[in-house]
Amino acid sequence: MKILKKLGVTLLGVLMAMPVVQAADDELIIYSGRSDKFVKPVIKEFTKETGIKVILHSAKSTALLNKLKIEGERTSADLYLSNDAGNLQLGSEMGLFQSLPAGVTDVIEPKLRASDNSWVGLSARARVLVANTAVDTSFVKSVFDLADPRLKDRIAVTHSGNGSFIAGVTVYMLAAGEEKTRAWLQGVKENAAGQNFNKHSKVVSAVASGKKSVGLVNHYYIYRHLDKKPDAPIKIIVPDQGEGEMGVAWNVAGVAVSKYTKKSEAAIKFVEYLVSEKGQKLFAEVNREYPARKGVAAASEVPASDSIKASQVEMAALGKQRNHTIDLLEAVGMP
Fold first, then answer.
1. Which of 29, 102, 136, 309 has its CA 20 to 30 A from that of 58?
2. Contact 197, 160 (CB under 8 A)
3. What's the whole-model pTM score?
4. Which CATH class is domain 125-249+326-332?
């Protein structure tokens, strides 16, 4: 229960807050942890091409996963869509998903999907640094530099219950070792001086305003800020790109088919569309993420994926190691 509370979810709250959704025989229901505006474009095209309608039941990914678990075989969900590979892997380990055909999943890079084909990644995001261009941050090359004493009171990070923060720490722990990550967390806690942010957008705003010098965010939040304020004094730093360094941390949004769906054929058809070249472009480009399918280009504004050194940590590990990561965060006393 402590872990559920850490993520802002209680089973009672999930049950009380989420009504039962009914669908017609020719409709699919998706429990979606992704904002509707990022899913609807691909749903619109899927429905146009197949005639299959899709209903979105949207909430936080963790809450929806718990709802799926509680409902069991009574669930009305045909698919589960999450912004976090950790939730997808946890759902797999709970036995909530059915295996997808290899012919559907094989187009996605192995480290971006489950080894048993129970879920598949759709779009990837990078954990990067946003820096204010009016101050000297030339010494910041790695995410671990956020613990540098020179950045005392000058860094911006989300609270440690943020799903992307947890996922990033898991990657750092697996790629660089637990002791280095523990020391880094202690340094970040010290440099943040007791202040954290509840949204990545607020991290970017704090850096852009000059209140902070460097922040840790998912890459697309920087571009969203620049859309509104193109002259903002910020830049992106893709960390840990040097020889021998771990590379940038990734996480993926992904999808799984409910074990209890009575519409497997239509649900798999939807997944097949999502991993198609057209579906990949639609799904990823709207949020400037990186398509999980190789050969499909990301939005022109973001650095090309083949120009970025990425961590080799498999996305399934974000679920397998989540409890360990949360234990580490609590041991350090991260706010």
1. 102
2. no
3. 0.92
4. alpha beta
